[in-house]
Every structure is written in structure tokens, then in C-alpha cells.
Amino acid sequence: TLIYTITIPLSTSIILANLVIILGIAWNRQLHNTPNYFFLSLLVADMCTGVTLPFIPLMGLNRELSFSSCLVAHIFPNFLFLAFLFNLVMVHYERFICIVDPLHYNNLWMHRSFPLALLVVWVPPLLYAYWDGCCCAIFPNAFIYLEVYGLVLPAILTIAGMTGRVLWITRGQLKDICRLHRSVERGSQASDQEQRLNLRYTRCVVAVSLTFLACWVPYLIYMHVCIAFLISDTKWSSTTHIVLSCTGIGSMAVVPLVLGLANKQYTEPAYKVLQKLRDRWRRRTRESEEVAV
């Protein structure tokens, strides 16, 4: 009961938010390009992660399962989680190259071979999850260490490294802009415009840092707590496991939503629909008040 009490509202929120962004991309034809197709693949993986979220806490509970039950409770959620992670790295890498090397951006292999890029982010997770599900009874700890320290942690560190590099490049470009502005103005003191730019950059760094910490730290805590209990070979409370797993996976699934909801192009169709509904409701309320008078 505790699993569904926590996961159903969280899962529903993740699914609905992803649907809003997916419909926003599908509605706007100007967004029908390769970068947004990658982001669309990430949103589909994130939505599927939201669908399987109620099953993820069950993966840590020891009990006997049939093959079909194991497929639903272990292999399928693990596949979607890894596919989500691979898609997230791909989206960050694609946008990272756009900023770091814009001249060669359109010549990237992922742009020239989009179907191949989709296979790269979907097929390896499927093969690994199936392999893990079939062989975990023989080598249970080895596959856990391989997934955590060979796939998940390097992916998170790669995303953090690319994000930090982008912020560093942005800082250098901001310094160049301020230097050119001072040379034009022929002043040694920072102007109000420079101070506003520096303040905006500081806010951006703080927002990115807090978002990264809020989205990834709970999952890292959950992951290493699981490893610690695995090494010590001690049983832990099912309630603790359920809360940590739901918090960790749920916070990680918010990352694409933050990227999508921050883009007004993705949310503009939903905003227009809500605005029309609000205007219609106000019109009906005004008409009913006039009739009552």
C-alpha cells in the first residue's frame, strides 16, 4: 500500500508533464528537427519511467517470481531506466557540441544517422537489462556493481562535466562582452549593464547547481545506500527502501521536465489552451452574473 500511495501521484505527475511537452513539440512544426527528436525520445523514455515507477521499489524486495513477473518487475523497469539515462546523456552531448563546436554541429554523426543514434540509446539498455535479468541469479552482485559504477555513475559524471564546461564557456564569453563594452564606453568601472549580465550569470549558475543537486543527489544517496547494505549483507526496512527508491528515481525523472518546461516553445500550446479555457470560464461567469441581475 505504501508503494502505491507514494508512486501513483508521482508517476501521474511525471506522465502528464511529459505528455504536455510531447504535445507541445508535436503541435509546433518549427520544432520538428533532429535536436527536438532527440529530446522527444528522452521524453518518451521519461514517461515510460513514470509508468514503471510503481514497479521499481519492488525490485529491491526479496521474493520468488515467475519469469513473466520478473520481466514486469525487474527487466522492463531496468531497461526503461537505462534507456532514460542513455537518452539523457545523448541530449546533453548534442547540446554540448552545439555550444562548444558550433561549426561542426550539423555534421555530427547523430544528425546524419538519426535512426542509428536511436538504436544506440535504446538497444544496449534492452540487451543489458535482459542479460542482467537472466544472469543475476548466477552473479547477482557483479551486475549491480557493473550497472552502478560502470554505467550510471559515469553517465551522471559525464552530464555534470558537460554542464560545467558549458557554464565555463559562458563565463568566458561574458567576460569578452564586458571587455568590449568597456572599450566602447572607454570606462574602467563596470556599468549597470555589466552588473546585470553578471547577476544573470550568477543566477543561472545557482539555478543549474540547485537543479542538479535536487535531481541527482537523492538518487546518488539511494544508490550508495543500496550498495552499502549489499556489502554489509544486512536486511533493511522495506519502508526505508520504498521511500528512498521513490525519492531517488522520482527526482531523477524530473530532469527532462525541467529542461522542457523551461522552454516556452514547448509549453506554448498548453498555455494557449489554458488561456482559452480561462477566458471561456470568465465569459460564462460574467454571463451568469448578468442573467442573475
Q: Level of helix content?
A: over 70%
What name is given to the CATH topology? Rhopdopsin 7-helix transmembrane proteins
Identify the CATH architecture: Up-down Bundle
> What is the CA-atom radius of gyration, in angstroms?
23 Å
The residue-averaged pLDDT reads: 83
Whole-number total of structural domains: 1
Q: Name the structural class.
A: mainly alpha
Name the shape in a single word: globular
Given as residue ranges, the uncertain stretches (5+ residues, pLDDT < 50) are: none
Q: What's the total number of strands?
A: 0
From the N-terminal CA to the C-terminal CA, the straight-line distance is 51 Å
Strand content: under 5%
**Could you state the order of secondary-structure elements as H and E?**
HHHHHHHHH
Name given to the CATH homologous superfamily: Rhodopsin 7-helix transmembrane proteins
Number of helices: 9
- What's the CATH C level? Mainly Alpha
Protein name: G protein-coupled bile acid receptor 1
Main location: membrane
Transmembrane segments: 6-25, 37-59, 71-93, 114-131, 143-168, 204-230, 242-262
Subcellular location: Cell membrane
What does this structure look like?
It is a multi-pass membrane protein. GO terms for molecular function: G protein-coupled receptor activity. With 293 residues, the protein is mainly α. The protein has a single domain, classed as Rhopdopsin 7-helix transmembrane proteins. 84% of the residues lie in helices and 0% in strands. It contains 9 helices and no strands. It has helices at 2-27, 34-52, 67-100, 109-112, 114-135, 140-185, 192-232, 238-261, 264-292. Helix 1 (2-27) packs across helix 9 and helix 3 runs parallel beside helix 6 (140-185). The longest helix has 46 residues, at 140-185. The N and C termini lie far apart (51 Å). The mean pLDDT is 83.
